[in-house]
Amino acid sequence: MKMTLIFGASGQLGQCLAHVARERGTAGLVFLPEEQANILNPEGLAALFAEHQPAYVINCAAYTAVDKAEDDVELARRINRDGVANLARLCGVHGSTLIQISTDFVFAGTSHEPLLETDETAPLSVYGLTKLEGEQLIPGLTERYFTLRTSWLYSEFAGNFVKTMLRLGRDRDELRVIWDQVGTPTYAIDLAGVILEIIESQSTAYGLYHYSNEGLTSWYDFATAIFELAGLPVRTVPIRTAEYPTRAARPAFSVLDKTKIKAALGVAIPHWRASLQVCLARLAAE
């Protein structure tokens, strides 16, 4: 049986992959939480590759504390750049296919058109910069790779915007939410399904892709939809980014164009609101 190693398995996407794999009956997946598999330890990684001889490697491990990264540049770079390089190098040696998860934060957010894989990158934050540096190292280390840029991930698992809004909405009558940052929420369960589709189809359409749910929205409209669909009587007040300053700058517009991945892999992508309904129903059933 061909094996797949999943690094960063205890995070949100790793948990979603485990959930979707159970639903689909996907076999041969080895889930490796950070305490068992440190992507900054080349010797430990080499031993794992030698033991499992993986056909695929999914890297869900990342430094994702966007604001904290501004003051923790060295660690963010080691994880998001050097750790990725460690995995890509071993994939090149063993003939494994790397599936790397990246981010819309590689863009400056100054465009008003959906962003293509070929559009110019100009990260505004350390997080975005270090994720881009990781992306850029991969092609020089292995030919077999899929880099998937995504945006605004949420799910039933781990901490995320949807779960935060639900928690706050149960305690408050009113919430102020940013309206001048526009992007697309992505249900991490949907992203996990696409990743497993790449593996199950044994696609060789290697390269850089964008994947998010369809449509676009602001954080304000996203929060409003969450409360509406969850039946919570919360009044949302739109505010500008300047009224809620953060340590790291965020792109004002980061809607990803999915034409390439739909053409190459034949995936059907749900609208963000439809996927949000699914997630909220599952959370309500817990």
Outline the structure in words:
This protein is α/β, with parallel strands linked by helices. The protein has a domain at 4-153 and 188-212 and 254-269: NAD(P)-binding Rossmann-like Domain (Rossmann fold), CATH 3.40.50.720. Helices cover 42% and strands 16% of the residues. It is built from ten helices and twelve strands. It has helices at residues 12-24, 42-52, 66-69, 73-94, 126-137, 161-171, 188-201, 219-230, 259-265, 272-285; strands at 4-7, 29-32, 56-59, 97-103, 145-150, 153-154, 174-178, 182-183, 186-187, 207-210, 217-218, 235-239. It has a six-stranded parallel β-sheet, sandwiched between helices. A two-stranded parallel sheet has the order 6-9. It has a two-stranded parallel sheet with strand order 7-12. Helix 2 (42-52) packs parallel to helix 4, helix 6 (161-171) crosses helix 8 and helix 8 crosses helix 10. The protein is globular.
Keywords, separated by commas or semicolons:
single chain, 286 residues, alpha/beta, Rossmann fold, two-stranded parallel sheet, 10 helices, 42% helix
In short:
The chain is of the alpha/beta class.
Residue fraction in strands:
15-25%
Query: CATH topology of the domain at 4-153 and 188-212 and 254-269, which one?
Result: Rossmann fold
CATH architecture of the domain at 4-153 and 188-212 and 254-269: 3-Layer(aba) Sandwich
Structural class: alpha/beta
Q: What's the main sheet like?
A: 6 strands, parallel
Please give the CATH class of the domain at 4-153 and 188-212 and 254-269: Alpha Beta
Taken in chain order, the helices and strands follow as EHEHEHHEHEEHEEEHEEHEHH
Mean pLDDT: 97
The coarse overall form would be globular
* C-alpha Rg (nearest Å): 19 Å
Poorly predicted regions: none
Distance between the termini: 34 Å
By DSSP (H or I, 4+ residues per run), the number of helices equals 10
Q: Which percent bin holds the helix content?
A: 40-55%
